[in-house]
Design goal:
five-stranded parallel beta sheet; single chain; Rossmann fold
Length: about 130
């Protein structure tokens, strides 16, 4: 099983994204394996598309629809307490609450692989980053 990070999904949907071509290549690999996202990934993707990228409504709606209809989605609110503990226990301050939730979810469900362009997932215990 492979967890898909929000930045990978954004790169896949946004043609102008610097990692768009690489995201399409990775897509060919992960479509052959079971991949999952969480509700928080959807929230992060839509927030970035809307606020940072200023994507048009058509792309936001298309992305939201495809994420909800084409992926196995994990309810992630169960992992928020563990994520907060990670934030409080890490010496490094390079992990967002989003990322800590994803790491907690992966740990709890035994998922070792994440598709992400975020380097801060490197050198984290039991995580293999596909990029």
């Amino acid at each position: 099983m492979i967890f898909l990070d929000a930045n990978y999904i954004i790169a896949w949907f946004v043609e102008e994204h610097e990692f768009h071509e690489r995201a399409k290549e990775i897509d060919e690999i992960v479509t052959k394996k079971e991949s999952i996202i969480s509700r928080l990934v959807i929230a992060e993707v839509i927030t970035v598309l809307n606020m940072k990228i200023k994507a048009n409504n058509e792309l936001i709606e298309k992305t939201y629809s495809q994420l909800n209809n084409n992926f196995d989605i994990i309810e992630d609110h169960y992992f928020y307490d563990k994520a907060i503990a990670k934030i409080l226990n890490y010496d490094e301050k390079d992990l967002s609450l989003f990322d800590c939730v994803y790491m907690s979810l992966m740990e709890e469900l035994g998922i070792r692989k994440i598709v992400s362009f975020d380097k801060h997932f490197d050198n984290k215990e039991n995580i293999i980053r596909i990029h």
